[in-house]
Design brief:
The chain contains 10 helices and no strands. The chain has 206 residues and is mainly alpha-helical. Helix 3 packs across helix 5 and helix 5 packs across helix 8. The longest helix has 27 residues. It is globular, with a radius of gyration of 19 Å.
Length: 206
């Protein structure tokens, strides 16, 4: 029994060591997220929209589609997360950042032909990722800008990663959950017009 527990503990420690960059990015971004608020520009409007439309999501996205934008999935996400407790957005946004880092890492690994990048390579990769000034994601308010850009980009890059791995015959564990996540990511990302065009071109090429 002790040997089994020791083995599992060692495996867990090894897993943490191999993914320390993911943990570091998650914690590094989560801490400032705790002090972010929806009190700027578009956020002030979107946090009240759901209530002003009597919690009728279809009515809201129908109006947005007719008079403002075709990004109905993204718009729906903005008002839903604006209505939910802000901690939900803070955790999900941090996870989206980690997903973006993970997907970019996978694509870079594929392009460079590296199975398991060494520590120096992963450190440089992490530092380059962290060099982006995330304060730019507050230009229209934290809620509005991140859901329109960070979440779209994370979903888009994740979708591209899955497609590239499949085209290159890279083995991936097949699971229903993975397929559902891939489908959701594609739908969310391609609801952004520019991403939809890029995805269409990539599908034609590959």
């Amino acid at each position: 029994m002790k040997n089994v527990l020791c083995r599992k503990t060692e495996e867990n420690i090894d897993l943490i060591k191999r993914n320390i960059d993911y943990l570091f990015i998650f914690l590094l971004y989560l801490l400032p997220h705790l002090f972010m608020h929806f009190n700027r520009w578009d956020d002030i409007l979107y946090t009240t929209y759901f209530e002003s439309y009597n919690y009728n999501l279809f009515s809201f996205i129908s109006r947005q589609y007719q008079f403002w934008t075709s990004r109905v999935v993204i718009e729906a996400a903005v008002i839903l997360f604006g209505w939910l407790p802000s901690i939900v957005w803070k955790v999900v946004d941090t996870l989206m950042i980690v997903l973006l880092y993970h997907s970019l890492s996978g694509i870079i690994k594929l392009l460079l032909g590296k199975r398991e990048p060494d520590k120096k390579f992963r450190l440089c990769q992490m530092l380059l990722f962290l060099s982006f000034p995330y304060a730019l994601m507050a230009t229209a308010g934290w809620l509005t800008t991140t859901i329109n850009w960070t979440w779209m980009l994370a979903s888009f890059v994740y979708s591209i990663k899955i497609l590239l791995y499949s085209v290159n015959g890279m083995s991936q564990r097949k699971s229903v959950i993975r397929n559902i996540l891939f489908g959701m990511a594609c739908i969310y990302a391609t609801n952004f017009d520019v991403a939809a065009i890029i995805m269409f071109v990539l599908l034609v090429i590959i």
